[in-house]
Amino acid sequence: MEMLPLMQYLFAGIVAVLVGFFFLFWRKTKTKTKNGIPPKKVENEKRSSVKTDDQDGNYDVIIVGAGVAGSALAYTLGKDGRRVRVIERDLSEPDRIVGELLQPGGYLKLVELDLEDCVEEIDAQRVNGYALFKDGRNTKVAYPLEQFDSDVAGRSFHNGRFIQRLRGKAASLPNVLLEEGTVKSLLEENGSVKGVLYKTKTCEEIKVYAPLTIVCDGCFSNLRRSLCSPKVDVPSCFVGLVLENCELPYPNHGHVILADPSPILFYPISSTEVRCLVDVPGEKVPSVANGEMAKYLKTVVAPQLPPEIQIPFLATVEKGNMRSMPNKSMPAAPYPTPGALLMGDAFNMRHPLTGGGMTVALSDIAVLKNLLKPLRDLNDTSSLCKYLESFYTLRKPVASTINTLAGALYKVFCASPDQAMKEMREACFDYLSLGGAFSNGPVALLSGLNPRPLSLVCHFFAVAIYGVGRLLIPFPSPKRIWIGARLISGASNIIFPIIRAEGIRQMFFPATVPAYYRAPPVN
Questions:
Q1: Residue 437 shares a structural domain with residue 467
Q2: Residues 219 and 185 in one domain
Q3: What are the tens digits of pLDDT across the range 37-90?
């Protein structure tokens, strides 16, 4: 390529500088609307390498992250009169393959938080229950919604559309500020969090302060290590596809195929699209680039699907639009820190098989809202610690039930060479197929409608005992008795480690748990 003459370089440089100055001036004098969210101007900004925001004292709460948890929390606290500042790395519409199914229990929390309209106008689909498929057989289990209003059901949708609706609703409040920026660290003093240091899109570093900082920056959080002891497990990955114009065997139901080696999910995310999530055990998936993924989906997955789904599934695989995401599990293990709180996937994750993540997050927000409501002045550090001390215990019934069920069901639904675990899987399918109380109880737990840990344990071992009964009737041979004993042992080995990680006292004896928070010493 020929070199430009020197004068042309100089002319181009002068033009670039002039355009740059014009753009900076235009940004300062004009208010833009981005992705339907009106940004709010920060007055009297001072330029420096690291500056302290001149609106210190104007906000009660800083929220890091504006996903489902952060946006819903911002609206909830803002509606209660709190002055809220939300810092989100990217306010454009997210594009994720998970966080697309909201259980009925989560929808009820949306109603409680006055956010139910956020599932409107995004082509969200009602979900009334599940259909299970195994070895050519299928059964349908409905959510037990008889005692609720007709509008109560699950909802499935595009995750990004839902988040943008939540962000828009939060930003509509005059006391809530949403802004783009990357939070680099928490600001601590005498063991208490006072605010955050964040970098703007123009690479300016700013310190902002508030009495309470809530970290909601998602499953890839870079702040959680200072507030909890993260023990992240990655049992599998989801490979996501979107099937267009696919008619599911059971409309308005999630579909779970108990395949080998692990489950496959289908559910509608719009009136014309169906999400498919193929679970691949382990932390690695076949390569998309060299065709291994397409081969795996065609030869291993497709033959195990119901005939109605196979053709649109294969057509989607041919298009090659496949994405993957690790399925993370992380028990809540906080370091209770005055002035700070963790929420959402930054704090607690479970296998997404049961779609319970948003229900847990919204439930946590409802708990926090009720805890903080009597406290009008968040600058009273001693009182703030007192009101927050029960949060981690009060959230446990819902969170631990959904977390434990997600981990246990995933292990039961995965194929196993162990004959005892094969019997457990078969027993689970048959138990749910019985209908009535046998399906209503487990589905009420899964949907977040009955968040009772003791009920979960009872139903889980009822399935195991049912499996043993199937083995012993009509002829309890020594081999069958031995398999039954291993089945009970295997069931115990599945559920008890999950319960232990969640916290036995917190799950079953919350009143015995001592307070976590203590106010920092006064200098």
A1: yes
A2: yes
A3: 444 433 333 344 677 775 666 899 999 999 999 999 999 999 999 999 999 999
